């Protein structure tokens, strides 16, 4: 994730057709591609027949067809949060999702109620290029520099989380008009090594913690605007025990994000982990007291409790799914009465794809 790739500035635009499962996206203008770089492609699997079709190589698709994409936008509380929006189908997916983050751009007419785009108005995406190590280089126009200092982290978080939702993108590097950037142009946030999810998002107040003795963890909490509920990622610094870091994360979720964060606390504060979390072959088993249940007589666990646990814990390395159990309860069900017969993955809430 932290490997550096040598970048050579040139004047050649490239279009690469990748064999197997995808086709080429618009490459970086004003530069040659880095060694071992791949032009960013369509997210969907492409048939051999499509690969041979020059019209499809150029990205022409049915203009009436739409695909659900996830964009990280700014909500009414100033928090960066994902929203799933139907966008026109295209072969140039990475290029498209960045364009849809621009104020006054094509996203304007379809913004969810209470949300706004964050990239400066007039910003153009000049090119995108995916390197072999998972670094995605995004080249934007000079208009990108026209923002307030207070917006800088939100811009970085929006771009980074929108693009790293794709499982083969690990971090993002920014170029402006063909030139690599070592820091952001307004407030000087360092970005020379790239920006990734490990840099955090919506970072919570840490005044009461010793940062040297704590760990940054991104937790997911429900939030609401009107009648709409959605999930907001919040990076919190929590004190992690050496015995079991997952216990510390779950306890932080139970305790909640604090009063300064505009999200919903969904856990009964009396909820307890009765056994130490156990990770086996990517599945994290959690055993709770009955206080976690919404309805103990029917063994119902609230959907928002399950989603908060799964979204948060599958962000941790090596955790692919979460198996929630409750002491003295044989079978848990969701709010619709459906049984949880298998460990729950994040794909149940946020399907992942590759570029």
Automatic annotation (TrEMBL):
It comes from the Bacteria. Transmembrane segments: none annotated. Residues 94-185, 246-335 form the GerMN domain. This is Germination protein M. It comes from Oceanobacillus polygoni.
């Amino acid at each position: 994730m932290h490997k550096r790739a040598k970048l050579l500035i040139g004047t050649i635009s490239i279009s690469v057709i990748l064999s197997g499962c995808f086709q080429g996206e618009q490459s970086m203008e004003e530069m040659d591609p880095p060694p071992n770089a791949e032009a960013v492609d369509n997210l969907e699997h492409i048939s051999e027949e499509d690969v041979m079709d020059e019209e499809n190589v150029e990205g022409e698709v049915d203009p009436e067809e739409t695909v659900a994409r996830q964009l990280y936008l700014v909500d009414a509380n100033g928090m960066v949060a994902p929203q799933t929006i139907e966008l026109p189908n295209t072969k140039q997916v990475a290029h498209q999702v960045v364009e849809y983050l621009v104020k006054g751009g094509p996203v304007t007419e379809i913004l969810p109620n209470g949300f706004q785009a964050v990239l400066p108005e007039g910003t153009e995406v000049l090119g995108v290029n995916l390197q072999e190590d998972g670094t995605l280089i995004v080249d934007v126009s000079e208009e990108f520099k026209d923002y307030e200092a207070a917006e800088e982290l939100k811009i970085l978080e929006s771009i980074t989380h929108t693009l790293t939702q794709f499982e083969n993108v690990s971090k993002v590097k920014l170029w402006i008009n063909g030139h690599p950037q070592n820091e952001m142009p307004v407030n000087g946030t360092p970005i020379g090594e790239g920006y990734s999810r490990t840099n955090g998002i919506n970072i919570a107040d840490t005044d009461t913690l010793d940062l040297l003795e704590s760990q940054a963890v991104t937790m997911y909490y429900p939030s609401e605007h009107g009648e709409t509920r959605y999930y907001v990622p919040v990076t919190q610094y929590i004190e992690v025990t050496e015995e079991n870091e997952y216990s510390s994360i779950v306890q932080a979720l139970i305790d909640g994000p604090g009063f300064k964060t505009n999200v919903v606390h969904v856990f009964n504060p009396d909820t307890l982990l009765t056994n130490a979390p156990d990770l086996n072959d990517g599945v994290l088993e959690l055993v709770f007291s009955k206080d976690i249940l919404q309805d103990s007589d029917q063994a119902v666990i609230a959907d928002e409790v399950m989603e908060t646990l799964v979204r948060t814990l599958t962000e941790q390395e090596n955790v692919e799914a979460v198996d929630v159990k409750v002491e003295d309860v044989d079978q848990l069900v969701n709010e619709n009465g459906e049984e949880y017969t298998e460990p729950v993955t994040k794909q149940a809430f946020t399907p992942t794809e590759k570029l």
